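Good morning C.,

I know you're traveling, so I'll keep this short. The sequence:
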Amino acid sequence: MSPAQRFWASAAAVAIVFPALVPVLFPFRALGMDRALERDHVWLLMVFTAGVMMVLFGASGLIAGKRSVGVRDVVDAGGVRQALDRASEREERRADYTHNAAVWTIVTGAMLLAAYIVLWVALR
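The tokens, ready to paste straight into the viewer:
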């Protein structure tokens, strides 16, 4: 299986399995909720919230991961400018999206939001 196939298959698997497990694993009794009445609302809320959170966390990881350097990078490189140049070179070599956790998180979150839309239309 190629890296791209693993990337998309794992994102799709999470986006399918998570909505399937929400109605089964959610603690309705512990929260004093009636499972029959509240299942659809909880289902939609959980899938929507998880999708939005994944997109936002992925976006923050993508933004923070661009050319970020630490103290050790600056000391090893001999200066801030050199450390930033090294970080740019690393980013150019590692440009493949299939090895970027932030991109995977954004894609999975978008798939969860698509699942939310499908669930919302189906339950209407």
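Safe travels,
E.
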